[in-house]
Task: structure prediction
Amino acid sequence: HGEVEAAAELMGDDDTSDWKSHLVLGILNSELSRVKGDSNALAKAKHHYQRMGQSSTECDTIPGRQCMASYLYLMNQFDDVNFYLESIKAYSEYNDDFNWNYGCSLCASGKYKEGLETLLKVSKETYKTELEYVLWLVKCYIMTNNPAEAWECYLQTEDSHISYEILQLIGNECYKANETASGMHFLCSARSFSALLKIDPCPDYINGFLGASVGYFRHVILTKSNKESSDGLKEIMDMLTFTTLPKAQSIATAIRSWAIHNQ
Result:
């Protein structure tokens, strides 16, 4: 019920040989570490999860494998986490906690397609509004060539802190897509940096916005023009002309000149 400190006081700090106690203490200390930023609690969580996961009597049980996966997760060894969670997937794939952890681990190991499929199985609304969940979901959409869905996540987010984090993620990750980037990657990056500029006109956001705008313009030049790309270019022009940046006006002038000669 969220009363982590009360639970910690109730359990005490004694080590144990009982596997159920290792399981509870692992979960409890993980939560203490997350909520309080307690490095001592993190070390204890690792200890209890590892003891449970390596127990000769529990290592091949579902709780034992979950504990070993949790230990490896805290150690950032995500390929190994995936191995353990894959082995119990058939017994847990409709469990929100399992899909949260497995989805995040898949994402952290670069398996974005599988990670997206797993995260989308999470049904609890409280989980789906957590920052970590939302950011992994957004990154999955970007890395699976669906930046429009990433932008939709931003539009649907009501929490201002999470919205700010999403804007930074979309701006930077869509911009870094490079050779795999579609026009929509650049457009979503420009949208994000344009919104961030209204909050903080720092050099990184300025350069990101200008670079993404030029990237989208280049994409339009190199690909056959259609209504979608024309609409996107108009949106880029609107964002450029809205700013007072001299370089933005120069880019807008270049786009306007190209449009006149290529209608």
In short: The chain has 16 helices and no strands. The two ends are 63 Å apart (CA to CA). Residues 141 and 150 are 6 Å apart (CA to CA). The chain has a mean pLDDT of 89.
